[in-house]
Amino acid sequence: MKICYLAAANSIHSYRWIKFFAERGHDVHWISLVQNQYDRLENVHCYEYPVRSAVSIDFIRTAFAVRRLIRDIAPDILHAHYAGTYGLVGAISGFHPFIVTAWGSDVLLGSRSFFKKPFVQHVLRKADLITCDADHMKEAMLRLGVPSSKIQVVYFGIDTKKFRPAERTDILRKKYGTSSAPVIMSLRNLEPIYNVESLVKAVPKVLKAFPKAQFLIAGTGSEDARLRSLSESLGITRNVKFIGRYPNSELAQYLNAVDIYVSTSLSDAGIAASTAEAMACGVPVVITDSGENRKWVTDDKDGFVVPVRSPDILAERIVMLLQDGILRKQFGERGSAIISKRNDYYKEMEKTENLYRDILHARKN
To answer: Is 131 in the same domain as 179?
Structure first.
C-alpha cells in the first residue's frame, strides 16, 4: 500500500508507528508541520512544512500546499495523527479514504473549547475511520455525534522485544552517580498536567525512611525552573536529579536500572507510553488514578494507584515498595505480563494494517 501520514516529526509515537509500516515494505510518505528530530527512516519520503501557529494565514497557505502534495502523491490511505491541526489539514485535503488517530487532548479538551469544538467535529465527520487508544476517548467522540461504527480502539503499543525485563545495568550510576542507592524515576514532561510537583513534595517523606534514595526526574517543560526551586526549598537537591531529555535508544537500559517508576499525571488518554514501557521492563509502578489507569493496573495487585495531588500517599506507597523486595518483584512480573498480552506494539500495528486493508476493500466493493 501507498500510505501518507500527516504527523509531527518530533513525536516518538508517530515515528514508531510509521517505522513499522516502512519496514513492512509499504510505500510510506510522511508530511510534518514541524522539523524532524529523529534519525531519518529508510524508505520513507519525508516532507516538512514548518508552521508556527495553526491560527494564521501561514497555516492556511500550508494546508493548501499540503493538499496539492497529497494529490501528487496519490496515496491509497491518508492517515492523520491528532484530530486537531493534522486532522484539519487532512480534512481540508478532501482526500479519501481518510483515517484519523485521536490522541487525547484533541478530543477530550478540544470538545470543551467553544472555538476548537467545531473544527474537531468537522475533522471527525470527514474521517472514514477513527482510531483511539482508550474507551473514554471513544465515549467522548460518541458524545460529539460520531457513529460507533467509525471508531476502533488501537493502542500505540510497546515494543516488547526492546522493552522487557533484563539484567540490571550500571548506566545510571555512570551517568548520574546513583551508586547502589534505590532509584525512583519519573519520565513525564515538566508541564502542569503531569503534576511532577507531587513527586517532588513526596521526596522528603521517602528520605526519612530511605535517606540515600535517588530520584531521577526526566523531561523538559514550562515547570522546570519552578520544580528545581521547589527542590532547593525542600533541601533535597542531593537526592533529586533533573536529567532533562534522555536518549530514547537508552530508555530500556534506564528502566532496567531503576527500582520504581512513578507517574503523577492529572490526566491521560489511555495508559501513558512511559508507564507501559516501565511495566514491560518489569519495573513496579506507582501511578495516579487518572484516565484509564485502573483498567491497566489493579491497585495493590499489579502496582499502586494513588489519588492525584496526594504527595503523602505517594510517598507511603514508594516507601512500602522500597521496604519489600518481594512485592516489587511481584508487581514487576504482573505488569510485564499485562503489557505483553494487551499492549504489544507488533500486534497493534498488525491490527492497524488489517484496518487499512479492510477500508480499501470496502471502497472497492
So the answer is: no
C-alpha cell at 72: 501528487
C-alpha 293/C-alpha 316 separation (Å) is 19
pTM listed for this prediction: 0.86
**C-beta neighbour count of 261 within 10 angstroms:** 25
Q: How far is CA 182 from the centre of its chain?
A: 26
- Same domain, residue pair 137 and 188: no
Domain hosting 260: range is: 171-342
**pLDDT tens, residue by residue, 33-71:** 998 878 889 999 999 999 877 777 889 999 999 999 999
Residues 325 and 354 in one domain: no
> Is residue 42 located within the same domain as residue 19?
yes
Question: Strand order of the sheet with strand 285-288?
Answer: 240-244, 214-218, 183-186, 260-263, 285-288, 304-306
Mapped onto helix, strand or coil, the DSSP state of residue 181 is coil
| Long-range contacts, stretch 67-75, CB < 8 angstroms, 24+ apart | 67/92, 67/93, 67/94, 67/95, 69/31, 70/4, 70/31, 70/95, 71/95, 73/2, 73/4, 73/29, 73/45, 74/2, 75/2, 75/3, 75/4, 75/29
User: How many domains is the chain partitioned into structurally?
Assistant: 2
